[in-house]
Amino acid sequence: MAMSHDNSASATATVVNAFTPELQMANMLGLCEAQMESALQESDQAVDALIKAFTNLVEATRSVSSFAKDLPPEIRDTLSSDLDQKVAAISKQVGSAVMAFQFYDKLTQRLGHVRYSLSTLALFVCDRTKSTQPEQWKRLLNTLRRLYRTEEELQIFQAIMDGIGDEADEPPAPAAADEEAKAGEVELF
Amino acid sequence: MPGVILAVDDSASMRQMVRFTLEGAGYKVMQAADGVEALSLAKETAADLVLTDVNMPRMDGIALVRELRALDHYKFVPMLVLTTESGTDTKQRGKEAGATGWIVKPFNPEQLLATIARVL
After folding, report:
1. Quick check: is A163 in a domain?
2. Chain A residues inside the 8 Å CB shell of B111
């Protein structure tokens, strides 16, 4: 077993040290993917901690609100208007925070798709039987196209694909207004 | 009157957001991280409404809706899909599987609660 492992390691070293443009490109793509993964893991931990703190804060606020409702009427009457306003203001802020947290989830999902695309491309460029065939590039693009499912991802994909070969054109930025309009859209069947 | 809601999403932070939005309105929330877990939970405990994501490992939300609709006690239970996807094709697949409605993430808590109250 040990011999087999050594042979395998040696073969890997040979491949890594060999210079081909494809391999260099694959290494660069692998580097980008690894940097992205590391950054995402770090931010996941930070966001998890933030969400826990936020949840505790919201639950504490709800307890205060519930406690205030149970106060004797004579005490509650003196506090009522001010307290109700404050609770309503906090509820509004909580709603905004809940929406903001979800954008992080969406960001994670989109970066996951980018990471997958980078890994797929790295494998593809190293395979000359595929990377020299225009038909195979079309198949690769179709595979990646199916990966992108949000409206914004599809818009960017389409803009870039439409612009292929036209170096003068910058891909248009996704319409933020469209993005906001779709968010929270409800359709009952 | 608030009931029991089965919330399904592979993202822990999304489940957290959904949970405290619904619990704040008095609902009891059961959670599952994918369709397989949700299906098993749904068979053990009756839910008054199912709120599910689409893209999840093992079993996606559309397959989950289809599986649940095949169960006698879930034939008429409202099932809402909560997803980042707003494409017509996927939405149509959800409708055909038996979903009651489609909500595009990120959800607005007040709007989510109003939609749930409407279909319950």
Report:
1. no
2. 184, 186
Residue of B31, B84, B111 for testing the chain A interface, max A β-carbons within 10 Å: B84
Count Cβ atoms below 10 Å from residue B8 Cβ, excluding itself.
Answer: 31
Best residue in A43, A98, A101, A185 for a mutation probing chain B (most B CBs within 10 Å): A98
CB atoms within 10 A of CB B38: 29
This complex has an ipTM of 0.80
The shortest C-alpha distance from B44 to chain A (Å) reads: 27
pLDDT in tens, A16-33: 557 888 888 899 999 999
Interchain pair B13, A58: CB under 8 A = no
**CA triple A26-A29-A30, angle to 5 deg:** 85
Count of residues making up chain A: 189
Chain B touched by A24 (CB under 8 Å): no
Q: Which domain holds residue A94?
A: 20-127
Say how many domains are in chain B. 1
Dihedral sign, Cα of residue B96, residue B97, residue B101, residue B106: negative
pLDDT digits (tens, 9 = 90+) for A120-158: 999 998 888 888 899 999 999 999 888 888 888 888 888
Give helix A73-126 / helix B12-24 axis angle, nearest 10°: 160
CATH of the domain at B69: 3.40.50.2300
Residue A12 pLDDT exceeds 70: no
Domain containing B83: what range? 4-119
- Compute the mean pLDDT over every residue in chain A, rounded to the nearest whole number: 79
Nearest chain B residue to A55 by CA: give it.
B20
Nearest by CB: B108 against A108, A184, A187: A184
Q: Does residue A175 form part of some domain?
A: no
Residue range B2-55, pLDDT digits in tens:
799 999 999 888 998 999 899 988 999 999 999 999 999 999 989 999 999 998
